[in-house]
Design brief:
The complex is a heterodimer of chains A (296) and B (459). With 296 residues, chain A is mainly alpha-helical. Chain A contains 11 helices and 4 strands, in the order ααααβββααααβααα. Helices cover 71% and strands 4% of the residues of chain A. The radius of gyration of chain A is 19 Å and the shape is globular. In chain B, the strands form 3 sheets. A 6-stranded parallel sheet of chain B has the order 1-3-2-4-5-6, sandwiched between helices. A 4-stranded parallel sheet of chain B has the order 8-7-9-10, sandwiched between helices. Classes of the chains: A mainly alpha (296), B alpha/beta (459).
Chain lengths: 296, 459
Amino acid sequence: MELFIQRVFDGLQAGVIYAILALAIVVIFRASGLLNFAQGELAMFTTFIAWAMLDAGVPWWAATILAAVVGFGIGALLYRLLIVRLGGPTGNPLAIVIVTIGLFLILNDGAGIIWGSNPAKVPRIFGDGRVEFLGAGISVQVLGLLGVLAVLVIGFGLLFQRTKLGLALRAVTSNQESAALVGIKVVSTLMIGWGLAAAIGALAGTFTASQNSSVDTNMMQIALIYAFAAATLGGFDSPFGAVVGGLIIGLVSELVVGYVDVIGPDLRLLPGFVLVLVVLLVRPQGLFGSAQVARA
Amino acid sequence: MTTGHRQRPTGSDRTRPSARTGWRLGAALLALGLVAAACGGREESGEGGGDGSSTTVAEAVNLANPADCTSYAGTTGADGATIKIGNSLPQSGTFKVFDKVRVGINAYFQFANAGGGVQGKQMELVSLDDAYLPERTRANAETLTQSDGVFALLGLVGTENNKSVQQYFAETGQCVPNLAVATGFPGFGDPAKDPWIINGLPNYGLESVAFADYLEKNKPQAKVAILSQNDSFGESYVTAFKQAIEGSGVTVVAEQTFDPRAESNAQGQVTTLAGSGADALLLGVTSIPCPTALKSIQDSGWKPLTYVTLTCSSKVLMDLAGAAAEGTISTRATYDPSDPANQSQPSVQEFRTEGAKYGLAPEDLDDLNVATGWNFGAYLVQLLKASPELERSKVMNTAWSQSGVTFGMNLDGIEWTTNGTDDPFGYEQLQFVTRTGGKWVPEGEIIDYGSQIAEQGGG
């Protein structure tokens, strides 16, 4: 029983990172109808910025928040200077997806050039403490992250459903032309969307670094794969779905690998993706996504 | 003086795909396609040894025989005013930390050249980038031998990379010394099969033998858990360890592998191992996953007697682990120049003063990979000086019959000894160290595992 509970905690620990990164992916998708393959590397890059601030004497929690702010700026500028020139979502979406893959490489090598490729040490934002529960232990760090995740998902749910900005973001995704006609500033709105996504990504990055106690240029690559799976599972247009998807993928991976001997660590990626495949066969829009409805 | 190296990008410079790049792109696309599979890429790092105070006894070892080669030129690369040495390692991409090995070799060559070189000839290094891709290492070996005409190869990084070079030489019938390869893969210590390649790092199996020996002495009924990388690096440790505990009271009670390419940490494996009731742990993991695993162990509340690999014991990785590394044990064959406790050692002082003179930046002086390169340089220079002449098979046969050699920053008391097929591994002694108060503290005497490791060869 202790072992089972411990595995659940392990699953949550992994899942919370996937969830946050999936949230960033979903926010961009909701705002601009695009997938950003550079999301993970953007997160890594801003995490290095946080680390640079830490190195300069800024407390880690403050550096995390500042990195999210800087991330917002980078995301917004990226959209304004690069993506919008490719025509935004009305241009060739494939071209933009390829550009984000290019960004992936540029950010990865860029971080290596600026900060070196040796890993750098970072502290844990919520400390090294540990809480015992039914004979198993969960770190205070993971509990803290779950709290942050809850705040994020509620915040973004409210943003999209209850605010004018959220309405504008949804309107722009739905139909840019109509949105512009009713007076929505399309480019500024999308800049905010990309900025928000990068800010969330920065949190995913700093939390990953915090969990591993180190930051290195490749730290977000595996998480990105899981995050895409999480977003697919939850539904690409549902922030809540992304979070649930992230936690489910984390739990399923951990439990299946832990209890099914045939699926050892070598096949760790498999269970989560099989689950995604099964869910998609039954519900193509994902668990919480809205079905595509085309006008006849 | 024609010192130094040329650093040259190979082939189509613009594309620069790294091992990880290909994987990343593939992975990103697979994420869409919902299926992902792990793939290649191996990781090695570590320490070597380096300066030429040799007491070589060249016994009649005749393993490297030109008659076995369809294409043989014994003095190419060493018949002019310089001795040209080739090298290939990742200068770009994910594994470019290992490019520091080149920096170390180069500094040592310049240091040696300032002291008159070898037999009046200057050492020259030609180093090419392989981005850790075995097929590019193979192409580099072709360029180095066919176009650059190097005399020998030195310090090539990576097990798979060296295997691809080995295969290239076998296919083309060439016999070119591949010296001090930067991997401890036991398969390269098999001169009966291939006398033209020799390890430059302690055999990974040697560490396992040492840990088994340590347990038998200090914890004879130890129940051991093993966490290892699922590649030839991890396998080398596991195989040798199981072999070494045969017939003793030490048992392996749980095993887990870790895929550094598909997992960001080994939390799940640690949970499983902690639940096994093991009281000792062999951590056959390197690079960043190693300190991360130590963190997970700390989080789990499990307190096994943990052995970390020599390649994980570097300052950079141990600093990442911080308090989580306290009480772990490891082994040493060389001094770590970044360790304050080693600053008074003459060989470390030589590295720091002479290295700085010949191009090493302050951060290089604390870098274990630079130190490893320096040691490789020192190894080669003493070997060439010990060889009866600058001829490939003679150098190789000398390499297989060195006795009690000291060079570079090898620990005082460590003697590099080889004796053909009977004893193919230069390092056979290790010093146990315990992580205490954020430092490695030597424990007991340097132990000679020569007889035990002899049984481990061939991998």
